């Protein structure tokens, strides 16, 4: 039975986006696609324990979801043009013409249409392509689950009402559309890098690998776009460290304690090559964007053979450059970590405390404060900050790490 549950979970990780994309292409309705996909997975939960896991779970789920969608259309029976409905039900429409033939890439561009607000694009794509639950997306945005659910529902309705096409944009439209797609892929990657939910694996390589795959496709569409290259480099340099990030006991391993020999040298080399390309462009007068600077910061970290060899002055200089582009409190929080290494934890703590009003519901804010207070010898305040970070953190590996650090102080 546990093998079947694992197979269903694996199928959800591997096939959710494929099933949604296939149904969206055929029926042109995200609501139908999502409901039918959910019903297909529910059918798998009911039938696979008795019938066994099918040889091709993805094909089984897609076929079942198609039947569920057709059943729903028949039940509704509200369309005026019955002949059009019959063609939609029984015939696959012709494939949209695009530079790259990939259903999931088309689905991302559909969900990231400029007719939708930026945050709505990201949330919808995290749900439809990333397969994240509404609570997971709400945690990523630090908003209530009910508000996030309503946002996603309204987005699907708007796509249907506006007849937003299911396709990759034309070459001339790509530059205007790509920023929203990159934002989505970055958040999908981040959810895989450090899952927010307590009921999921602490790391979700299915999400990080899919985000990298789709970013590679976009780079093939736009090989000269610096931010696409920067995001791909950032993902590669981060993914390279995945196997060293969780201990055998299920505890998050911070960079200071990671076995750098376990890092993926191939991914690091590819990421560094992309960063060097963008540095050459910057030297030629092309100003780097947010993802390019974040990739450069990660290149500095992954260039050091030991944490003590990290060039923190270069890291801080890059953060100073990034703050001019993105003054978000989370960037300021990350910058404070570099400040602590150069100017000491007291200076960094003052910078972190200025972020309290905006980040009080963010677990990493309290975890950073806890570490700085620990380094300053303020154990009681550090324990209180660890308590708050543990309360807010959903990731099981991170919770285990924070709990151990707190208990060491006590």
From TrEMBL:
Similarity section: Belongs to the sigma-70 factor family. ECF subfamily.
Protein name: RNA polymerase sigma-70 factor, ECF subfamily
Family matches, as SUPFAM superfamilies: Sigma2 domain of RNA polymerase sigma factors, Sigma3 and sigma4 domains of RNA polymerase sigma factors, TPR-like
Keywords associated with the record: Sigma factor, Transcription, Transcription regulation
Residue intervals of the RNA polymerase sigma-70 region domain: 18-78
Source species, domain of life: Bacteria
Transmembrane spans: none
Species per Swiss-Prot/TrEMBL record: Nonomuraea wenchangensis
Pfam families on file: DUF6596, Sigma70_r2, Sigma70_r4_2
All copies of domain DUF6596, residue ranges: 177-277
Boundaries of every RNA polymerase sigma factor 70 region 4 type domain copy: 108-159
GO biological process: DNA-templated transcription initiation
GO molecular function term, any single one: sigma factor activity
């Amino acid at each position: 039975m546990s093998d079947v549950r694992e197979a269903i979970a694996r199928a959800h990780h591997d096939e959710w986006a494929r099933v949604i994309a296939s149904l969206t292409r055929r029926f042109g309705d995200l609501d139908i696609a999502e409901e039918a996909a959910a019903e297909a997975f529910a059918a798998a939960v009911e039938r696979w324990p008795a019938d066994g896991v099918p040889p091709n779970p993805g094909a089984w789920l897609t076929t079942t979801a198609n039947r569920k969608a057709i059943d729903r259309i028949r039940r509704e029976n509200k369309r005026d043009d019955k002949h059009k409905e019959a063609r939609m039900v029984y015939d696959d429409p012709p494939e949209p013409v695009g530079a790259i033939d990939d259903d999931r890439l088309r689905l991302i561009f559909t969900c990231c249409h400029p007719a939708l607000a930026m945050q709505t694009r990201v949330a919808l794509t995290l749900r439809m392509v990333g397969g994240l639950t509404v609570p997971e997306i709400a945690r990523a945005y630090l908003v209530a689950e009910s508000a996030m659910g309503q946002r996603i529902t309204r987005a699907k309705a708007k796509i249907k009402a506006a007849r937003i096409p299911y396709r990759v944009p034309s070459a001339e439209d790509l530059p205007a559309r790509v920023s929203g797609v990159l934002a989505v892929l970055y958040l999908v990657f981040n959810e895989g890098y450090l899952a927010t939910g307590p009921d999921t694996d602490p790391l979700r390589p299915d999400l990080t690998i899919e985000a990298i795959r789709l970013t590679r496709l976009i780079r093939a569409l736009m090989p000269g776009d610096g931010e696409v290259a920067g995001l791909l480099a950032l993902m590669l340099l981060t993914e390279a460290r995945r196997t060293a990030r969780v201990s055998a006991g299920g505890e998050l391993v911070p960079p200071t304690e990671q076995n750098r020999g376990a890092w993926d040298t191939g991914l690091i080399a590819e990421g560094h090559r992309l960063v060097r390309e963008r540095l050459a462009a910057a030297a030629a007068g092309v100003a780097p964007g947010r993802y390019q600077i974040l990739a450069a910061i990660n290149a500095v970290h992954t260039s050091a053979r030991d944490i003590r060899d990290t060039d923190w002055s270069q890291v801080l200089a890059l953060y100073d450059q990034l703050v001019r582009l993105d003054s978000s409190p989370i960037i300021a929080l990350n910058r404070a970590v570099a400040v602590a290494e150069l100017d000491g934890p007291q200076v960094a703590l003052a910078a972190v405390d200025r972020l309290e009003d905006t980040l009080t519901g963010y677990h990493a804010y309290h975890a950073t404060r806890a570490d700085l207070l620990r380094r300053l010898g303020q154990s009681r305040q550090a324990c209180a900050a660890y308590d708050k970070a543990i309360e807010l953190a959903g990731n099981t590996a991170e919770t285990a790490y924070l709990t151990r650090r707190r208990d060491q102080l006590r």
